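ARCHIVE RECORD
Type: protein–small molecule complex
Small molecule: flavin-adenine dinucleotide
Source of inputs: curated submission
Record status: active
Notes field left blank by submitter.
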Amino acid sequence: MLNLNKYDVVVIGSGPGGFTAAVRAAQIGAKVAIIEKSFIGGTCLNCGCIPTKFLWKALKIKQEIQRSYEYGFSAILDPVIFENIINKKNKNISIIRKGMESILSSYNIVFFYGVASFKDKNTLLILNSENGKTEIYADKIIIASGTEPSTVGNFVFDGVRVINSTDALNLKKIPKNMLIVGGGAIGIEMATIFSGFGCQITLVERANSLLSSEDHEVSEEISKNLSRHGVKIITSCTNAIYDIDRYEKILVVTGRSPSSIFLNLENAGINTVRGNGFIETNEFCQTKINNIYSVGDIAGKNLLAYTAQNEGVAAAENAINGNNISVNNCAVPQVVFSMPPSASVKILNFIESKNIIFGKFPFTANGRALIENERMGFVKCAVDVLTRKPLAFWIVGAHSDEVVNAAAQILKSGMKCLSRETIFHPSFSESLLNAYEDAFGKCTEAVKKNKAKKI
Ligand SMILES: Cc1cc2nc3c(=O)[nH]c(=O)nc-3n(C[C@H](O)[C@H](O)[C@H](O)COP(=O)(O)OP(=O)(O)OC[C@H]3O[C@@H](n4cnc5c(N)ncnc54)[C@H](O)[C@@H]3O)c2cc1C
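STRUCTURE (tokenized, with ligand):
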């Protein structure tokens, strides 16, 4: 007898990891279901990548209007009604949600709304307030349940005064002042957006610099730009923060914790890494249990949407066709939407390379940057002296979020050098080549240095 609740592949979570895995599994011909306890699209669409970049863009437009006199215009900006911007952001999210729903239905993927948990390694229970409990069976299961905001110290989220990133992205009004706890990518993006719209921000970070795992020149440039916009930055902040009562809002963005509490992983025999809730997987995205795979944030590798998507494709293919695709995360670009944005990409373990030389090129010397009135920042490049291969790029400046994609392709393809004829002029990307050439004292677009870095 046909069992309607039996699937080839069931995916838990509809963020970038789960959605991509479900669609790819269906493309291969599997009968697929996806379970989601909240909105389709996960963190990325609803409270992560898309809303932050939308608000960043709104701020950019505001600044462009304010700076339009530099091009000879005389535009006057009316007071900003932040709620209108939030409404437009929400409209855009709905458009993308609808698009995702039609993709799922075009592939006949069954969507279950509810909280998934394991009964055993092939059976899932779905709990939802309308239908109660539904039980479904799956040959293969892909867990893509993502992460949730986590807090630190004595801060307890109340959604009103002590808030997380999701709350912040739905504020209807710009607060007078805000303490942001956490100077990583999310903290920096929030400080950029809210200070840009007139909120007095104090940004505190436990490490001795913002974005502490990044190159020190990048971190210094970001701090400089935030300070120019009035953000008060306190690093090496290990003590309790005094005058806490004076802040209208306290935004805690110190990290994310795995969404695994509802899953009852123990019923399926799945390990988490050192018991911390992140699911342990091998290079094929497979857990210790053969028929169960896990991708994206919950698998704890990079906590980025495109890593989740990459793993989603691999897990779907591996689950259905056998373990053929391994994920190596060799040259993953990282971007922070500061103002201007900053980005970096490195080949794995580049720091272990013994003979590194560095080149640097400022955007003050880039023609396109002058045209766009975006002359802040630089490109920095690390090169292996022996092989002449670029090993890493750091870019602070306008469009670095796009330029870094070209840099990643260059690193990933192992190109010995960049070639001038493949880079459009005038463009920001040209500075990748300029920085690379500078490492050898061969940049033709900068004044001669006293000490050319010869090999
Ligand atoms: C403020 C912010 C900004 C960000 N900006 C960027 C960016 O610019 N670029 C970038 O690449 N990344 C960014 N990220 C990170 C990015 O959002 C995540 O890496 C990405 O969403 C991870 O995808 P995922 O599929 O693993 O999980 P998620 O997107 O978190 O999706 C998991 C889904 O699973 C559902 N779920 C969980 N448990 C269950 C259950 N038991 N049953 C049913 N459903 C369940 C959740 O409701 C959720 O919808 C940002 C994150 C934040 C917080």
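CURATOR ANNOTATION: The first strand starts at residue 6 and ends at 12.
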